[in-house]
Design a protein that fits this description.
single chain, 922 residues, alpha/beta, 9-stranded mixed β-sheet, 27 strands, 16% strand, disordered N terminus, disordered C terminus
């Protein structure tokens, strides 16, 4: 069943979160309750509404604003609470101060029973068309002077989302400059004891002091100059987030201050953008995300909605509803402000206890603050990313001691992390040398936290890095990036706290890979801005290995994170993952998992890793699954003819080995196989490349022809310099370079009944040794094809035959030892048949030849990989069909190819099936 947006996401049968919107009704449908409910549903929640005000408005005007009675508002709240208690509440348009007081009293009672339900306030005062929505005032300046007082909400709400004009009114201050804007947001946060998202998307290109009666419009150039001089970037929509004791957030961010910058969308259709943003924040919060997450997701949602918005009436149109934002380009860039400097100026100049109208910085201090909080690129963003990982991480063990590290490396594990958490009191060796202590103190001073670089720790990390190099593994060092650089580790893994103090430029300059932990959308975006090698997502389930300020992320959030970033970075899920929940984690689409306790606390860590790997990715798991009692691989069929697949070959052919139908044993079987290719024209030279590069052990090439200039458009192995040279000889030389593991023999003579014994001598010997063998007929000569067919039937050699002329291709395979009822080439085209069609007389397009060569090579590989014990039905798909390809219509047709008892080559009186070919469309 299709999801709500027409994708293939299964329909969610879980009850959605209940989200309340307490706001006004917009009769035009673009803002207010109507926009809120559309947004809430679009983001996967169930919306409930309590209407405060009824407005008569369209896209161009508000003609009447009429509040509902206090009794009606209370009745709505009481009735909803008795049946549909909210997971989050959004408060929008309030008509007058009495409604503010009424709601504040109700919230105080509500919070005593539901203390963790977040409440978001959007202080709506003016509609998008510019008309006032409060106190029936039609003059904006009058609205400013009679703005609602939201102080009754102090301590009862989690976030307020004023725009530029609303921020100025609520703080009674001039917010013309970016510095004043940020300072006013801090004032409001302290005044209401809540977080503030000050929206700068609607900043005008001049002064925004709505109390100044002397403002006049200036020309565009003057506005642009004023805009830049006030610190704003005209190309960006910049919002200022002041976090205030955010629940379930890390210590690093719960009281942080951040600029969120998105590309400004050039559209006039922004009706209801403020309502949409605040209701989107509320809907995301209701689904268990932290406040910072809700803000960045909602901001991306609004950006998408603005980009797809259409005008419906004569005025600004409403935002489009585009579903959960999974386009990384829509998310804001995050820049953390210099908190200490802002605090200094805030405390020195902004006394929240005094008249807020006077809380503005001096001109000199404004300039100083503006330099610090200007919209500069976020710290640590690099123009080029960190090292790309050599292989996928797969199951990624995180260990804390060298013994376990070495045992896993010896077992074949290729990606690990060493995480040693220690302090000076835990060192068991002699006291660190004076130089080491000096480094430790220096690191403590620079980072603000102890960074132990004692001799014992350094020796352990040095040894671990050496082990990683010896086993050619991707070893990441957790936290200790200086030592990782010093001893040339493969990579470093950093947490968000470490990310804030580490020298990323030095890590990148040293050529190290970088992994970054994240626990939320907000931290994902911070990690993304560093362009790391991978991003870890967690913790997914409860874990005892580390104290976490955040709640477990869970599978639903993990799936959201994967949808956003899977096309950009390797993603690693971490936290409480074991065999019991591994399948559920894999179902989210994440490609890699980091595992701690499931390996480190296991009785046999190597066996635990093998079991996890086998469950996560069977063939990578089989590669690293030693039998501890016999010291031999548990993977069945790993040896063929006494050979094993080397690590280098395993990596080279990994995409083939990962197929269930191939595996390591199948790849070894290909390496032990011998194939004869007759004809090195358009079909043969392509088939030779496919098979040699696929790992076929021996190829015999037969062709007496020389390269001609007319061959080059479709015979891609040859070039101008090869014209006049024998095709088999040239092909052998080039294949030796392309696939040196393949033994190639070239015969520069024609294939016929007289030369057949010589040409097939090697393959017949290989067959006697029990190896897989095959002949490919890639010729365009009827007599030669008959000779090849007869020789293969007489020698009981499997044959795959293909041809193409003009737009008509043919393909069939015969192996009457494995599929006795299948017909041969002579069954279809007896020797007396007149066949004059060939590419030299009919013409052909190169890609058509490529299609047939690819199909011929595919059939050949499947026959070489098939077991002699395979059922007759499975073989009939390959051996019992005669395929035709129409290169003009791209249509394949197939006929059942049965053995003709009267065939001069393969006929037998014991077999009497019908020789009629039954055609059917494929």
């Amino acid at each position: 069943m299709l999801g709500i947006h027409g994708d293939n996401t299964p329909m969610n049968t879980e009850l959605p979160a209940f989200v309340w919107t307490i706001a006004g009704s917009d009769s035009g449908g673009g803002a207010g309750i109507q926009a809120d409910l559309a947004t809430i549903q679009d983001l996967g929640c169930h919306g409930c509404s309590a209407i405060t005000t009824v407005t008569a408005q369209s896209s161009v005007a508000v003609t009447l604003v009429e509040p509902v009675s206090a009794a009606m508002l209370m009745a709505q709240l009481t009735t909803l609470l008795s049946d549909l208690p909210p997971k989050a509440i959004k408060i929008g348009l309030l008509a007058d101060q009495s409604q503010v007081t009424l709601l504040a009293d109700w919230l105080a009672s509500f919070k005593s029973h539901y203390p963790t339900v977040p409440v978001i306030v959007d202080p709506v005062m003016v509609a998008s068309c510019g008309d006032a929505l409060v106190d029936n005032c039609q003059d904006i300046k009058s609205v400013a002077k009679s703005a609602l007082d939201f102080k009754p909400f102090k301590g009862l709400i989690d976030l307020i989302t004023p725009n530029v004009l609303e921020l100025g009114r609520l703080t009674h201050s001039d917010v013309s400059t970016k510095a004043q804007f940020a300072a006013a947001a801090l004032v409001l946060s302290q005044s209401l004891d809540c977080s503030v998202l000050a929206k700068g998307g609607d900043v005008s290109f001049g002064s925004t002091d709505i109390l100044d009666d002397t403002h006049a419009q200036t020309n565009a150039n003057a506005l642009d100059t004023a805009y830049k001089s006030n610190g704003w970037d005209r190309e960006l929509a910049e919002d200022y987030l002041v976090c205030h004791r955010v629940r379930a957030s890390s210590d690093l961010h719960q009281n942080g201050r951040f600029w969120l910058a998105s590309q400004r969308v050039n559209t006039r259709h922004n009706h209801g953008s403020g309502c949409t943003l605040s209701s989107a924040i509320t809907a995301v919060l209701a689904q268990g995300f932290v406040l910072q997450d809700a803000v960045v997701v909602a901001k991306a949602y609004v950006s998408q909605g603005l980009s797809a918005a259409l005008g419906l009436g004569q005025g600004p149109g409403p935002l489009a509803r585009t579903g959960w934002p999974n386009d990384l380009s829509c998310y804001a860039k995050i820049n953390q402000c210099d908190g200490n400097f802002i605090d200094h100026n805030f405390n020195q100049h902004l006394n929240a206890g005094s008249d807020l109208a006077a809380t503005v910085l001096s001109v000199k201090d404004q300039a100083r603050v503006q330099v610090r909080i200007a919209s500069t690129p976020p710290q640590n963003i690099l123009s080029h990313g960190f090292k790309v990982l050599d292989i996928n991480l797969g199951v990624y063990p995180v260990v804390s001691d060298l013994t376990m590290l070495e045992s896993l490396l010896a077992a074949g594990v290729k990606t690990l992390q060493l995480r040693i958490k220690t302090d000076i009191s835990q060192l068991t060796t002699a006291a660190p040398a004076e130089s080491d202590l000096g480094k430790s103190m220096q690191s403590r001073c620079e980072s603000g936290e102890p960074e132990l670089i004692g001799s014992e720790l350094e020796a352990q990390i040095q040894t671990a890095i050496a082990l990683g190099k010896h086993f050619n593994a991707q070893l990441f060092i957790n936290d200790h990036w200086q030592l990782a650089i010093k001893y040339h580790a493969f990579g470093v893994h950093l947490g968000q706290e470490d990310l804030a103090v580490a020298d990323l430029a030095a890590i990148k300059a040293a050529g190290l890979a970088l992994g970054i932990s994240s626990h939320s959308y907000f931290e994902l975006l911070l990690a993304h801005q560093c362009s790391p090698s991978y991003i870890a997502l967690g913790h997914i389930f409860p874990t005892t290995t580390k104290q976490m300020p955040s709640a477990p992320q869970g599978l639903a959030k993990l799936k959201r994170y994967v949808a956003l970033l899977q096309d950009h970075y390797p993603l690693v899920a971490i936290g409480g993952i074991d065999l019991d929940n591994l399948a559920k984690v894999k179902a989210t689409g994440v490609a890699n998992i980091a595992v701690v306790r499931a390996i480190t606390e296991a009785q046999d860590p190597v066996a635990a890793f093998a079991a996890l790997s086998q469950a996560w990715e069977p063939y990578w798991g089989a590669k690293c699954m030693p039998n501890m009692s016999t010291n031999k691989p548990l993977y069945n069929g790993e040896t063929v003819s006494g050979k094993t697949l080397s690590d280098a070959d395993f990596m080279r052919y990994s995409r083939q080995v990962l197929l269930l139908e191939v595996g390591e044993a199948g790849q070894l079987q290909l390496a032990d196989a011998s194939v004869v290719i007759v004809g090195l024209g358009g079909l043969g030279q392509l088939a030779a490349q496919y098979l040699a590069r696929a790992g076929i052990g021996c190829l015999t090439l037969i062709d007496m022809d020389k390269v001609e200039v007319s061959n080059l458009p479709r015979q891609l192995l040859f070039s101008d310099g090869d014209i006049g040279l024998n095709k088999a000889r040239v092909a052998k030389q080039k294949l030796n370079d392309l696939a040196p593991q393949c033994t190639v023999t070239a015969h520069e003579t024609a294939f016929n009944t007289e030369t057949a014994a010589h040409h097939l001598a090697d393959i017949l010997e290989a067959k006697q040794q029990g190896k897989k063998v095959l002949v490919l007929d890639c010729t365009d000569n009827f007599a030669t094809r008959q000779a090849i067919n007869r020789s293969c039937i007489e020698a009981a050699l499997p044959l795959v035959s293909a041809s193409i002329a003009a737009f008509s291709g043919q393909l069939f395979a015969v192996d009457q030892m494995q599929f006795p009822s299948g017909g041969c080439y002579h069954c279809i085209f007896p020797a007396q048949t007149r066949v004059s069609q060939s590419c030299s007389t009919q013409g052909v397009l190169g890609p058509s030849v490529g299609v047939m060569a690819s199909m011929q090579s595919l059939v050949a590989m499947q026959l070489l990989l098939s077991a002699d014990s395979d059922c007759d039905e499975s073989k009939s798909a390959l051996l019992g069909r005669f395929w035709r390809f129409d290169a003009q219509s791209l249509a394949w047709t197939a006929a059942v190819l049965t053995r003709d008892p009267h065939c001069d080559v393969c006929g037998s009186k014991e077999i009497t099936p019908s020789t009629k070919m039954h055609c059917f469309e494929v």
